[in-house]
Specification:
Elements (H helix, E strand, L loop, with lengths): L1 H43 L11 H13 L9 H15 L2 H13 L4 H9 L2 H4 L1 H17 L17 H13 L2 H5 L7 H18 L6 H15 L2 H14 L3 H10 L1 H4 L1 H14 L4
Helix pairs in contact: 1-2, 3-4, 3-5, 3-11, 4-7, 5-7, 8-10, 11-12, 11-13, 11-15, 12-15
Length: about 280
């Protein structure tokens, strides 16, 4: 008899638990749908989940996942999320989506200068041809929105100062790790590459106005998550921490890339993040 009572009690508890899970799932469904609609309207000025177009099912999955769920992870504001997204899409050369998110970024208050600098920042990491493709899309949007180009210059460094100013930014964040790693190449050509990195990446780009150092470093995380270069990412996670970004902000930035780069690159990036975290 006691066994029977216990079984009935266990069954009742299981039913309650199942009901609670189902209720939580229903609440989550409602919440992510409403959050999706609100975020989508803020970003694009339109209606999400409209059940229109040739693939409404895919769009519904995409929109609820990105704008109803990923956008709720961490404490990034919409401006930062969109700059991360624009950077990732520029790296991937997914130009139609890049155009949509440039517009969204402007809609939530990212300035034209900030957008230009975000795309300029890609050049040392993905090369100039892809960066020029992204800039072409950016300037198309500016033209459509009656934003006059060229934008004001934000350069701050004279030709003869590039190395000196670059070193001033590079050394506190990264020391001489690149120069040391390239020692021993024929005719000391590794020293030439190390100098190029200092002068171009840090001297030409990091010294520009329009984005602060913390934001530049965070966008580089987006670039490296997208390319899948986890070894360089580890170095830049450390650089982000030195630049003043919290580990929570870096984690949220990596996860913001997830819908745009997929799970493999994002999971590799999160493992890289864990590898550089100080042991507790």
């Amino acid at each position: 008899m006691k066994k029977k009572i216990a079984a009935i009690a266990a069954s009742a508890l299981m039913a309650q638990a199942t009901s609670a899970v189902a209720l939580a799932g229903a609440e989550s469904f409602v919440n992510r749908t409403e959050i999706c609609k609100e975020n989508y309207n803020t970003l694009f000025g339109g209606e999400a989940l409209s059940n229109t177009g040739n693939d409404p099912e895919m769009m519904a999955i995409l929109q609820k996942y990105i704008f109803g769920e990923v956008f709720t992870v961490g404490d990034l504001d919409n401006k930062t999320r969109e700059m991360i997204t624009v950077t990732s899409l520029a790296v991937q050369q997914t130009l139609p989506q890049l155009k949509a998110h440039i517009n969204a970024a402007l809609n939530v208050g990212v300035t034209p200068i900030e957008l230009r600098e975000a795309i300029y920042q890609c050049a040392p990491f993905i090369g100039f041809p892809k960066t020029l493709n992204a800039l072409d899309v950016l300037n198309q949007v500016f033209k459509e929105r009656n934003i006059k180009t060229p934008l004001d210059s934000t350069a701050t460094v004279k030709e003869e100062e590039r190395f000196e100013k670059g070193v001033a930014i590079q050394t506190p964040l990264y020391g001489d790790e690149i120069k040391e790693s390239l020692e021993g190449l024929p005719q000391d050509m590794g020293a030439d590459v190390a100098r190029f990195l200092t002068e171009v990446c840090f001297g030409d780009f990091y010294t520009r106005k329009g984005l602060d150092l913390k934001t530049r470093e965070l966008l580089v995380v987006s670039i490296l998550v997208t390319t899948g270069n986890t070894e360089t990412l580890k170095s830049h996670i450390k650089g982000n921490l030195k630049a003043g970004n919290s580990i929570e902000t870096i984690t949220a930035a990596i996860i913001q890339c997830l819908p745009y780069v997929g799970f493999p690159n994002t999971l590799s990036a999160l493992r890289a993040l864990k590898d550089v975290l100080p042991e507790k």
